[in-house]
Amino acid sequence: MILVTGGAGFIGSNFVLDWISTGLGPVVNVDKLTYAGNRENLAAADGNPDHVFVQADICDQDRMSALMAEYRPSRILHFAAESHVDRSISGPGEFIRTNIDGTFSLLQAALGYWRGLEGKAQDDFRFLHVSTDEVYGSLGPDDPAFSETTPYAPNSPYSASKAASDHLVRAYHHTYGLPTLTTNCSNNYGPFQFPEKLIPLMILNALDGKALPVYGDGQNVRDWLYVGDHCSGIRRVLEAGRVGETYNIGGKNELKNLDVVHTICRLLDEMRPRASGSYAGQIEFVRDRPGHDRRYAIDPRKIESELGWTPAETFETGFRKTVAWFLENPAWVEHVRSGEYRKWIDHNYGSRG
Ligand code: NAD
Ligand code: DAU
């Protein structure tokens, strides 16, 4: 039995579905179901006895302890977080609560549970914390990519809250001996990504005939990784990572935002052509994100050389699969674009002009 937090979100649901479909064993999936959590992401697990869903808040330490006592997990994978940078700028409070206080509560519960284990069960237990490359801050055009020893320099309330959670995980290993692992990954994309993030937002706006809002000059660089490759990296770290270590996961796929948007337009022009002209005609430059990090890039040599992990998807295959998934799942798209989603779109884009 493994315990996953945030398994109804984008990456967590991909991880849970991959895990149970390959018969790796039962999962207890603990998620608060915020706006970003969606039971529909887990429809393929309906009726599968290897999947137990529990709606709960990671900030509730007593509840986390009770769930660990009941389900006796051999591993805890911690995905739950507030994850969107723009939301952290307009409302940082929830980020401090879930990402910092919530990780603290989960660590406290896990420490109590782990201390009660004995022998091999205690030796084999792992707490894997899923984190981000944003904790390292922003790179200049010629700076080397982020390695595991790059100093932390988070710039947004989101990345600062994730950095704090990484430090807590590190401290629980160093001070109490809790067997932790931390992964810091680059930008993910793929099925079930909530359409507040760049790639699904652009696909859906394009299909709706709406503006494609590129922040600033569109020259900011992100390192893109298909979500299935992130999940395979996490599984590899869980299986063979050295306790107490951190591993960077990335696809060596650095792209400027404007090039990402043009790629999406090109794929849509081919797969769902407009009546006339290219979707690229819908691109609009809008006011920049405050404090917008210029460039992220991951140096994945540690996970590649120590653990033999490499991504399966290229930029071209991953983007094509993703665009196809959004075209093939209109019902999922309609359901996530509920009242709450519309409110966010009005709030974030209404004043960018
Ligand atoms: P997401 O926003 O899609 O999903 C987050 C999930 O956590 C949701 O299901 C939500 O309901 C749940 N959740 C939020 N607060 C909770 C709470 N207090 N208690 C229990 N559950 C709660 O996020 P995502 O994009 O899937 O990211 C998952 C993790 O991976 C996060 O920790 C994020 O920082 C990290 N990460 C994301 C990316 C990316 O590109 N999306 C890249 C690197 C790392
Ligand atoms: O690097 C990993 C991080 O990647 C994760 O930790 C975060 O959870 C995840 O949200 C993502 O953060 P970003 O801020 O990089 O992702 P986002 O999709 O919001 O934006 C990607 C880039 O696109 C960024 O430079 C901002 C820009 N952008 C975004 C949106 C939503 C636009 O130009 N227009 C937009 O409308």
Explain the overall architecture:
With 353 residues, the chain is of the alpha/beta class. It is 44% helix and 16% strand. The chain has 13 helices and twelve strands. It has helices at 10-21, 61-71, 85-90, 93-115, 119-124, 157-176, 198-207, 227-240, 257-271, 301-307, 315-328, 330-336, 339-350; strands at 2-5, 27-31, 51-55, 75-78, 126-132, 180-185, 187-189, 212-215, 221-226, 246-249, 254-256, 283-286. It has a seven-stranded parallel beta sheet, sandwiched between helices. The chain has a three-stranded mixed beta sheet with strand order 7-9-11. Strand 5 (126-132), helix 6 (157-176) and strand 6 form a beta-alpha-beta unit. Bound molecules: nicotinamide-adenine-dinucleotide and 2'deoxy-thymidine-5'-diphospho-alpha-D-glucose.
Query: Mind summarizing the main beta sheet?
Result: 7 strands, parallel
- Unreliable spans: none
How many helices in DSSP terms?
13
DSSP strand count:
12
List the bound ligands: nicotinamide-adenine-dinucleotide, 2'deoxy-thymidine-5'-diphospho-alpha-D-glucose
Strand order of the largest sheet: 3-2-1-4-5-6-10
How much of the sequence is in beta strands? 15-25%
- The coarse silhouette is globular
Q: Percent of residues in helical segments?
A: 40-55%
Structure class: alpha/beta
CATH fold field value of the domain at 2-190 and 224-253 and 292-312: Rossmann fold
* String of helices and strands: EHEEHEHHHEHEEHEEHEEHEHHHH
Q: How many whole angstroms does the radius of gyration measure?
A: 20 Å
Separation of termini? 50 Å
